[in-house]
Amino acid sequence: MKDLFGKALQDYYTNNYTEDLITSTNISGEDELPLPYLFRRFSEMPKLEQKALQLAKGSVLDVGCGAGSHSLYIQNKGLKVKAIDISKGAVKVCKERGVVHVELKDVLSETETFDTILLLMNGTGIFQELSQVPKYLKHLKSLLNPKGQILIDSSDIKYMYEDDDGGLWIDTNANYYGELDYFLSYKGENETPMKWLYLDFERLQLACKTVGLQCEKIMNGDHHDFLVKLF
After folding, report:
1. What digits encode the pLDDT tens for the residues 3-28?
2. Reading across the β-sheet that carries 60-63, which strands appear in turn?
3. Which of 30, 131, 149, 163 is deepest in the core (most CB within 10 A)?
């Protein structure tokens, strides 16, 4: 990985902001991801993220912390938070912004236990593929303290396959429709494509059942997204 995401965060934080990240998937065209959005304050966050942060309690693990906006809010609430990300640049920016405990780490390498685990901004993305969901859920469950909770958001992207008449163009012989190839570019450079999973609520609920987790929907977002609590 070239860590273009981390490079972009560092550029923004060091006042070298000249352009935004460009994202696309195998089923959608290019879209800009504005760098200021990754440094947003609580008041600028979507209601769904605000709700998740308000529900955070006890010791918190912020998975895929990015620029650390969620961790900083939780830290300022007086809670102990550990932020982890696989981007070196993101970890550096988090430290510089004042996140006290941040590590360069994949969630599958985490061994500490927590009262709250946060996976936000399409948290199911890191599961990559439908077949990997049970493995990730089992591991996340093992990181929970008694009465702990996992707060995770996702989107049901079925709408992206709808035609003008409301019919669905989903190839039933293909992989699950929420499994996408995700492409990122920045300042003319392309990142290695990665797998990214958008998981609908029913499949997430079913996967939770198989690993002994309860799955409760907390709220729906504004655009086919939703927040759930796993416990």
Report:
1. 999 999 999 999 999 999 999 999 99
2. 102-104, 81-85, 60-63, 114-119, 144-155, 225-230, 215-220
3. 149
Residue 174 has pLDDT above 90, yes or no: no
| DSSP characters over the chain | ---HHHHHHHHHHTT-----EEEEETTEEEEEE-GGGGG--GGGS-HHHHHHHHH--SSEEEET-TTSHHHHHHHHTT--EEEEES-HHHHHHHHHHT-SSEEE--GGG----EEEEEETTTGGGGG-SGGGHHHHHHHHHHTEEEEEEEEEEEE-GGGGGB-TTS-B---TTSS-TTEEEEEEEETTEEPPPEEEE---HHHHHHHHHHTT--EEEEEE-SSSEEEEEE-
Percent of the chain with pLDDT over 90: 92
Look at the pTM and tell me if it is higher than 0.85: yes
Token digits of residue 191: 């990142």
Taking a C-beta distance cutoff of 8 angstroms, is the pair 123, 152 a contact?
A: yes
- For residues 140-162, give the mean pLDDT: 95
| Residue appearing with tokens 């990985």 | 1
pLDDT value at position 160?
Answer: 87
Angle at 19 between CA 17 and CA 25, to 5 degrees: 130
pLDDT tens-digit readout, 75-87: 999 999 999 999 9
